[in-house]
Design goal:
Layout: H1 7-33, E1 54-63, E2 69-74, E3 77-80, E4 83-93, E5 95-96, E6 99-103, E7 109-111, E8 117-118, E9 127-132, E10 138-143, H2 151-164
Parallel strand pairs: 1-9
Antiparallel strand pairs: 1-4, 2-3, 2-6, 5-8, 6-7, 9-10
């Protein structure tokens, strides 16, 4: 006896086949996504394999200047405005660092009197405090948490408060 298939049955079979193929593709995709990665996760990776050694930090620029500053740059990359805000995921090359900033009153650019050296940090130190002092020297302080004021900075602020009579 010949089998007679209606257009509705053909359409139903086609839909089941399409659904089956979609389900198979989704299963394969999820299995591939669950495979262990051959590269290290970003959280554990602070260096790349290039000849230049790069570290990634969340940078907070803290200014102890008696005047407002902005456009703080670390090796040419803007990293903040001096109020302690955070610039996330800044790629920095290890070695000597050049720090510049601009005076908000005059617009003049100042280059730090010293050139701090950034060494390979411990992997747990993901934050970098960039401290800018009134004598135009700077200090780089890696830390595991949001950078806080340095002892030198705290002393300078207390002295400034005494001088202003607060």
């Amino acid at each position: 006896m010949p089998t007679h298939t209606t257009p509705m049955r053909k359409r139903t079979r086609l839909l089941f086949r399409i659904h089956g193929i979609s389900l198979l593709m989704a299963t394969v995709a999820s299995l591939v996504a669950c495979q262990p990665s051959t590269s290290t996760p970003i959280a554990d990776k602070t260096m790349n394999s290039n000849k230049r050694q790069i570290v990634y930090f969340d940078v907070s620029a803290i200014s102890y200047q008696q005047r407002p500053i902005f456009e703080i740059r670390l090796n040419g990359k803007e990293v903040g405005a001096g109020g302690g805000s955070l610039m996330a995921g800044v790629a920095l090359e290890l070695g000597p660092q050049t720090v510049t900033w601009r005076n908000a009153e005059t617009g003049a650019t100042t280059r730090a009197a010293n050139q701090p050296l950034l060494d390979r940090p411990d992997a747990k130190l993901t934050y970098l405090g960039l401290h800018i002092y009134p004598d135009n020297t700077v200090e780089l302080v890696p830390s595991p948490f949001w950078p806080e004021k340095t002892e030198k900075g705290e002393a300078l602020l207390q002295e400034q408060e005494k001088q202003s009579g607060q």
